[in-house]
Amino acid sequence: MHQPPVTALAATDPDIADLVEREARRQHDKIRLIASENYVSQAVLEATGTVLTNKYSEGYAGKRYYEGQQFIDPVETLAVERAKALFGVDHANVQPYSGSPANLAVYLATVNPGDAVMGMALPAGGHLTHGWSVSATGKWFTPVQYGVRRDTGRVDLDEVRDLAKRHRPRLIFCGGTAIPRTIDFPAFAEIAAEVDAVLVADIAHIAGLVAGGAHPSPVGHARIISTTTHKTLRGPRGAMLMSDEEFAKPLDKAVFPGLQGGPHNHTTAAIAVALKEAAQPAFRDYAHTVVANAKALADALVERGFDLVSGGTDNHLILVDLTSKSIAGKPAAKALDAAGIELNYNTVPFDPRKPFDPSGIRLGTAAITTRGLTPAHMPHLAGWIDRAITTDNPADHEKIATEIRELLTSFPMPGWA
């Protein structure tokens, strides 16, 4: 049963209530390896579902356009102060609705239409909003895209420097959505300084690892930091912008009134709760275990003949090129889903296949670590993955799914009892 129970929802709309219950059970019964997903705590879940959703609060604490903010202002102030303390930044804005609007606010605060902006190409592991062609950021600005080396699968910082000197971008993004290695923030900062560009660190995937000391921090190197609040940070679906004092007002104005109206106060409260949780000693243990699990799973996959982009991982994320396994990413992901293992098919660097039918799959260990799985479980998980993609027999997939359900009964899930 979903926790807290959805009894009123079931009475009012049994169809939606049934779907919620089914999704809760699905999340409980499957090994969830989508790198952008996690399980929030019961406290975060409860905060997300409070009466704070009833309140409109355009503006910022102490400077609202609506009355009745006596309790909303302290909620947002708590979230801001906790973000500043956790990450050690001068300024934080907790209002962006999600990661893409947060990144759009960065553009609005720092550059003009047509300016050159630089980011990692999407097929190499970057994000749509880092100037990729189909995104508004690739249409409204002049994109300069860097990639990774074919021989190492890692960012070629010499190429980044050469491109930056040639195109003189006003903005440089580092970070992305499928980067399994440590981001060299000092090196990017050095390049940005050479061409007088603003460095933005998009740490949406690794924010929880940064907060827990399991990945180097961009603070002191990147002038602006963008992040979502879920993924490894284990909060609700939202985003934050952090910066040094110089960019505080431009970023705030870009978020509101530049791009958004009223913030989602229930989400802000849940962000505040997640930030408090991330400041606890137990979260540091969690962050380091996330990385330990990813490394153990990567090693176990390599032992079974899987080809990993860059050869392994330094964080929560593993990118697998399935070419040598004679199966594409999409059918592999569907087979794994049938076998009780949830992940996503993904483009790999220099992929000859199309994005909707790519060569790779992307895995992440944040959610399974929240459930309590440890490095000792990773060889067994690698075995399930190998078995699932080497058979097209539904009975074999169901057998694996049953084994997984039996394992997960020993690992509680927040939000399900």
TrEMBL record:
It comes from Actinokineospora bangkokensis. One of its GO terms (cellular component) is cytosol. Catalyzes the reversible interconversion of serine and glycine with tetrahydrofolate (THF) serving as the one-carbon carrier. This reaction serves as the major source of one-carbon groups required for the biosynthesis of purines, thymidylate, methionine, and other important biomolecules. Also exhibits THF-independent aldolase activity toward beta-hydroxyamino acids, producing glycine and aldehydes, via a retro-aldol mechanism. Thus, is able to catalyze the cleavage of L-allo-threonine. Its cofactor is pyridoxal 5'-phosphate. SUPFAM superfamilies: PLP-dependent transferases. It catalyses: (6R)-5,10-methylene-5,6,7,8-tetrahydrofolate + glycine + H2O = (6S)-5,6,7,8-tetrahydrofolate + L-serine. The record marks 230 as: Plays an important role in substrate specificity. Keywords: Amino-acid biosynthesis, Cytoplasm, Methyltransferase, One-carbon metabolism, Pyridoxal phosphate, Transferase. This is Serine hydroxymethyltransferase. The keyword Cytoplasm applies. Belongs to the SHMT family. One of its GO terms (molecular function) is glycine hydroxymethyltransferase activity. Its EC number is 2.1.2.1. Homodimer. HAMAP family: SHMT (MF_00051). It is an enzyme of class 2 (transferase). (6S)-5,6,7,8-tetrahydrofolate binds at residues 122, 126-128, 245. InterPro entries: PyrdxlP-dep_Trfase (IPR015424), PyrdxlP-dep_Trfase_major (IPR015421), PyrdxlP-dep_Trfase_small (IPR015422), Ser_HO-MeTrfase (IPR001085), Ser_HO-MeTrfase-like (IPR049943), SHMT-like_dom (IPR039429). It is found in: Cytoplasm. Residues 10-385 form the Serine hydroxymethyltransferase-like domain. GO terms for biological process: glycine biosynthetic process from serine; methylation; tetrahydrofolate interconversion. The modification N6-(pyridoxal phosphate)lysine is found at residue 231.
